[in-house]
Amino acid sequence: MTTYTVHDKTWCLGCTNFSLLESARQSFQELIDESKGALKKEDFVLCAGIGCHGKIHDYYEMSSIYGLHGRDLATAFGVKVGNPNLKVVSFSGDGNAFDEGMEHFVHAIRYNMDMTLIVHDNNLLSLTTGQPTATAWKGLRNRTAYGVSSDPFNPVSMAISLGCGFVARTYAVDVQDTKRIIKEAIKHKGFSYVEVVQPCVFFLDTREYFTKNLYKIDETTKMDKTIALQKATEWNYEHEDKKIPYGIFYQREKGTFEEAEPQLKSLLDKKIAWWNLKRSFSYDRFVKQEN
Amino acid sequence: MDYKCFCMKKFINLKNVFFQMRLNILVSGKGGQGVNECASILGSTLTSLGYYCFMYRDYESRIEGGHIFNILTVSDDSIQSCDWSIDIFVAMHMHSISFHKKNVVKQGVILTSESLKYDSYLEKQSFQPKAGNMFYAAAVLKVLGVGKEALIDTIGKSFKPGPMVEENKKAVELGYGLPKQGNLLGKMKKTKEKLYFFQGSDGIGMGAIASGLDVYLGYPMTPSTVLMHYLIEKQIQENIFVYYMDSEVSAINAALGASYTGAKVMTGTSGGGYDLMTEGVSFQGMAEIPLVIMLGQRAGPATGLPTFAMQADLHLALKSSHGEFPRVVVAPSTSEDAISLTNQAFYLAHKWRIVSIVLADKNTLENKYTITTLPKIIPVVSSLSSVAKKALFDNYKITPSGTSPMGVPGKVLVKASSHEHDESGLTIEDAASAKAMFDKRMRKIQGIEKDISKFPMVKLYGNPRGKKLVITWGSNLGAWVDLARENKTLKIMQILYMQPFPSLIVKKEIKKASKVYVSELNYTGQLADLIAEKTGILISAKQRILKYDGRPFTPSEIKKRLK
Fold first, then answer.
1. Quick check: is B188 in a domain?
2. Around Cβ B240, how many Cβ atoms within 10 Å?
3. Which of A68, A81, A287 sits opposite B283 (nearest CB)?
4. pTM of the shown model
5. CB B249 to CB A42 under 8 A?
């Protein structure tokens, strides 16, 4: 069973990370159960950056790396290079992913390594007491003198434009749908991106706003990039009375990084990691006596 | 922290030859003409005949045009430096003449594209322009008094069979035809020792592969890129994975991710890229995931002189990254050191779960050295474990030595963390647990010091009773060792381990000497400062023989600076 550790959970009372934590745990467990022995708990490696989301490292009784702020995707990429047979899921926050770690987000989509990114997006850097991030709306006053002066960044439409093979948005409070989407994301072959919008109950309580405006999209057209982009840009993270679409926007499989790189492909085919290889060295293969 | 002296010193006897013969060949031209290839193939050819060679490369940060040159020094004994008394000057382009004509000795020979009628052969399409560098190489051999067969042999060995080999052979025939038969190598003795001729970066690559390298993740930056190119060349044959990441930040974080799974991983960069990596180095310090970094120094600050050498990143390698944690810094001088020190760097990184930095410089990486012995490789064993006693593997088990077995993800549930943690990798913040974990990490230092006692941390050259002691490191060693062959008052000390530092042996040698100098390619004297920090002995400004224009010292230059 995928369970929680005995570690103290230090999120705030009523934090929507708790429901996200449970949704992801259920999706791991269901994937393991449905695999009929092919997938074990040990096959998962979770990565996290720094921020409220990062504490998730302490809560699952699973393998994980608590990395540097913004760098979780680079570390996750490395884990897959080290052993492409592992199921890698990277947890991130909006500050972690789109402020400090934007370069890794863009390149992870380009590499298309078979792994999943789950972004806890509450528009704030909450662990540093609530400063606005790239997804914070124009005019948001938190920890600013005049309010945020730039338009927010829409990671969902960006991911689709960059050709990410799986792009979805979900609402942290909706445990059932979040679980379903995370499961689909992990099952998707290639890089998958799950945007989890969430209120920060302490610094920015948007519960009412989301409950009022969220609507579930029709997922039957998810193969069509144009429709996906249209839907993704219906709401651009502005704080206006607009309908907010959620669900799987786009899904289309393409060749993965580890299958395109022969050395990694061979590890996949043999179901081994680098450390399983026996190596021997002889100078003859490298340097010849000249005289 | 003062490191106890468990360290071994190694005395390298210089052969007591009355006079070492040296011949300097300068090959110059425009970028893209194959200057480097011409000098390299001459070096390989002459080494194949039993001569010692050393090749220095001087080029600008551009792909085509400009003025570039190599100096190939040929000798009857081991050689690690070049000099500006040019015996044969090859100008593959006429504009090169003005740069170096003044350096040609009285009896020297000048071969130019005009004097060899190079253009007329091109007009007649006697061979492809790409083979032009072999034309000049053949001309040099004629002046040296060496038959062209040796060159044709080397071409056969160095190039893949195909039309280019034939073109090169045509160029050799024609290039050999024109110059007056010379006999410059006539009196020089050949050695019967086994000889190998390759550059330092190849040595680092070999050392890494010999240590069991699985994955190399980097980002191109001169002069570290040559190592990545070498490994890419070996990728298929050795079944390793080499990849250009999107940045140095990605490279080091991905390298740590890969190493976490039990792979043997290396990354490499130059000063600017290393600056970006430093947060990752600190992550290593906390997460204790084994890692080897090659830091190839070039002239800074900032973009500096991108294709020239400086030894100004010693402090960077030693003090970079926030927080305190154990690390090893080794500094190779020649291709031979490059193999053994990289091997030791891997051994220590994996045994002790630390970061090892191989601190090389542009000259060590790109100079070609003739060496006579290939160092013995020590096996690199990681203490991987796939058995857990509890649900979570104790990835940070507190042990007397400070190092703990590493759990393998896929087999056990294993956590690695950049946050202070307990034995299983879960976050803790209470004072007692934090101190216990800090002590565990720092305790490794004593074990590492003991472990290193089997490796030479310093090497001494020249007169064992020499009263003038010169302490140096990296590529700068070459000129001093070569000077010590004729100046019998000199004892040269090469520092191989910068961290842990061989304090006691350095102190002892300094006390024995009547005059002490520290020589480096930087402005402030970073090794001199380190010696003061570790031994308490101050090295005055007068004792510091420094150079910071990006060019290496030559023996004749330091001879003057010693006075």
1. no
2. 25
3. A68
4. 0.97
5. no
